[in-house]
Amino acid sequence: MTAIEWLLILALIILAMIVKSRYDARRWESRRRYWLQERFGTANQDEYYQKRYEMIDYYHRNRHHDQEPLDDITWNDLNMEELFRQMNQTCTGMGEEQLYDVLRSPSADPGTLKRRSDIADLFIRDERLRDDVRYHLSQLGKLRDISVYSYLSALFEYEAKSCVPDVIMLVCIIVSIGLMILNPTIFVVIFFVVMAVNIGSYFARRQDSKAYIQLLSYLVRMVDIAKFVEKDISGRGLKEEEAVLAGGKKQFKKYGWMTAFLASDTTMRGDLVAMFLDYIRMITHIDLILFRWMMAHAKAHQDTLTDMMGMLGYLDMCQCIASFRQWKEGWHYPELTESGRAKKPFMKMEKIRHPLLEDAVDNSLYAERDVLLTGSNASGKSTFLKTVAVNAVLAQTIYTVTADRYAAPFFRIYTSMALRDNMFAGESYYIVEIRSLKRIVDAADGDIPVLCMIDEVLRGTNTLERISASGEILYELSAKNVLCFAATHDLELTKMLEKVYDNAHFEEQIQDGQIYFDYKLHKGPSVSRNAIKLLGIMGFEAGTLDAAEAVAGYFEKEGKWPVFVRSAGNGGKG
After folding, report:
1. Nearest to 106 by CA among 448, 389, 396
2. pLDDT, tens digit, 9 for 90 and up, residues 178-194
3. C-beta atoms surrounding 81 within 10 Å
4. By percentage, how much of the chain surpasses pLDDT 90?
5. How far is CA 217 from the centre of its chain?
6. Are 248 and 307 in contact (CB under 8 A)?
7. CA max distance for the chain
8. Angstrom distance (rounded) from CA 138 to CA 37
């Protein structure tokens, strides 16, 4: 066969591959768009492991925050990782990391919160815009087990080796192709020898910079995706966001034709053209040559690149807020006001609900003073504390609450709830509890008021010292720039603190040997005393219950506890 015939056959093969690739790409796009539409407005079902959370946390830990973020105790008390996981319908690694950072960083800036909310509302109203942006962002996707921001920092510090050997290999393959065309019978062997050498050396040359090529490939795709997203949002009132993407597009427009040679998405679509380009890379080393040039260019314009990446993540995070609002029917905007130290912080809540609980019972409360909650175990005290705190976080992060009304000043939010012994540091539960409470007391002197949730103050010590010390701590907090919600079983505190704390309680009903909770908040301190009755429900003998009631009655009458004594064959108390 002549060289022309060989070239014609090759051209037909390439044409067939292009046609098949376009067909596959359209099918993939259709399926992808449908999948994204189905996920929007639902809880994310993906499972996360601890290493992934640590990776996502990188951006938050290395970013400057104008206001103190939620500390680890509060974040863990409120189970915010689970809320983040279920809310996370982001399409990119940058959006995922920004969403995590936003949820950990309550803001006191009305403008910042309103802007996030307005963009989220736009995504809710304009379904076509939302679908287009989500589709294009999903083409960028997420890096597995890699923080985009951590590797971006590493990329800018990486010193690439010389590309001279790769250029020589590229020249050799071009020369061998030219010789083969002139005389295929003689030089075809030379071509295959050069190709084998190039492929063999490719993986050795690539190994040193493999991870960085992966990230740069991601950044190159990001530049390409930014062009589509800029077009999507054009004319939608997002001038600032559009300008950032346009600036990045202008600075990195040279990357356009290089995308195919550096980035491969065969794992995503099984694209035949992309698979063909994989072999082109191995034979020519073109990606290694482009990598070194593009590295130098990216370092020279890293601020523009970082801004563009941040803006794509920001838009991704905003569409995720829109998804959460679609998921949580009955959500509302919060009513947030600035408050100094001149007056007591307040909170108005109407039908407030926990966002993670199905068929959650709603509660309402107007708190003009600190609040002391009483009630039996499992009656709803801890859940109510978490409900209020989580909604306070959502109000100051995504400008969304799962309540009919939430009105409050901007807060710094602290909790002291799900504590445990720190055996590795050799600290008892009581020491851990003291440290947790002390951090709240120390934070209470700032200009921005503190919202704190305390569950069972000082439960780790004896009754006498617990009541006296916890009464003093709660009294001290009431005099500071704090709105405190505290749950307790110590009914003595309701009397001790009635001048500075409002009392509220949860109730239970015992019917036919069963206990029922309505999880509704009631005014005033708890008046029921069902703990002993619950012993009976759980199978304790009637004699034990009667004796326990007698002991309780003795204490109420005499103001002291009886002494338990035992004689031979008889039991008694005196």
Report:
1. 396
2. 877 777 777 777 878 88
3. 17
4. 45
5. 25
6. yes
7. 116
8. 12
